[in-house]
Amino acid sequence: MKLYNQLTKKVEDFNPKNKDEVKIYSCGPTVYSYPHIGNFASYIYWDFLVRALMFDGYKIKRVINLTDVGHLVSDADEGEDKLEKGAKRENKTVWEIADFYIEDFIKSYHTLNLVEPYKFARATNYIEEEESLVDTLTEKGYTYETADGIYYDTAKFPTYANFAKLDLENLKAGARVDFSSEKRNVSDFAVWKYVKPGENHTMQWNYQNKAGYPGWHLECSAIIHKELGETIDIHTGGIDHIPIHHTNEIAQSEAAYEKQMSYFWLHCDFIKIDGQKVSKSLGNVYSLQDLANRGFSPMDFKLWVLQGHYKGDRNFTFDDLAAAKKRRLNWRNRIAITYQKDDIKDNKEAMAEISNAINDNLNSAAAFSVIDNSELSMSDWQKIDELFGLNLINDAPNINENIKAIIAARKEAKENKDYTKSDEIRTKLEEQNIAIKDTPDGQIWQYLN
Ligand SMILES: [Zn+2]
Ligand 1 centroid to 365 CA: how many Å? Predict the structure, then answer.
């Protein structure tokens, strides 16, 4: 399989080091508000990565983290903790906020029929591992203390700028003068933050005899080490993670464990909505529920996402979503036809083309056009369903004996030229979401909606 690797900035052949099991880590949500559809697009892209690898016969061990502490409003250690912000907004405790949005996220995850990871790892369940990682970094001389926490000295990690091709001189010039003046370098980041006197930070732990909490980047390094080991095969995230979050994860893990953190790094681009960035002020922060309210299923959205590529600008419009829905309903009706024909053979050629497309840097769009243009057997559809997780067969159940008998009765009525009865039966079938079409080969049934 070929994939775009941010580490080398090129499309490369993916060969896992451990042939039996591909280790994948995906940066997950900060659980303080409802995710919008742009957030879910990334989980859909990486779900497809997982499914494509499974299609190729790999076993997967994947961890997704749930950030419930330490992610400040700015990714660069500034502003309020997002969980505290959520708690104030909803007049709840931070723990209630975390529990609520974790439950909501996992519910949506299941609604989208995304492959269950080996673990959803909640940051506050790894405090011990996070403290021990700070210990290691301190023992190796990578940290220093300031009044507000323990910082990573990025000057001690000579390759710090490589991953994101950072221009550190420029960063320095552009930095705010009052920005934590105790920091040695503008790119230094907190691995551990102290609770300031008078600060209302509910989640806090006693470390080095001071009340504090882990920095956001620390959790991913600690969770990966605990659950997946020193080196993983693929690390995923959004492009916004490249310059700070993933750069810092690499600096922490590779300094502490002295091993390459991940062989592949995959990042998806953002989606725009109606040509604009997703933003509250533009009123375009759609949730999955907003799509449902407009009559779209999570599978319509999933299909829309997979019509594009994880690298590349995407523009979401409701017209395009409607087109994706039409395509999905069309595929569902082709499955209905498959039930009614017993002479469709497995299409090895089409399945090989689909396999080539997905192995070519996850080109689901090309695979979809093969689906559009090929006659497929039930067993082909089953493989396609496993590969894309679109619930096609589930949403296209075969008709039962009762409906089969009603359809046969309509055929008989038509043959007897009893059009009143045949029309009555048609209406009766429509009530059961079944449409009857007369074709030169006789009548066929389809799903109405
Ligand atoms: Zn992360």
Answer: 28
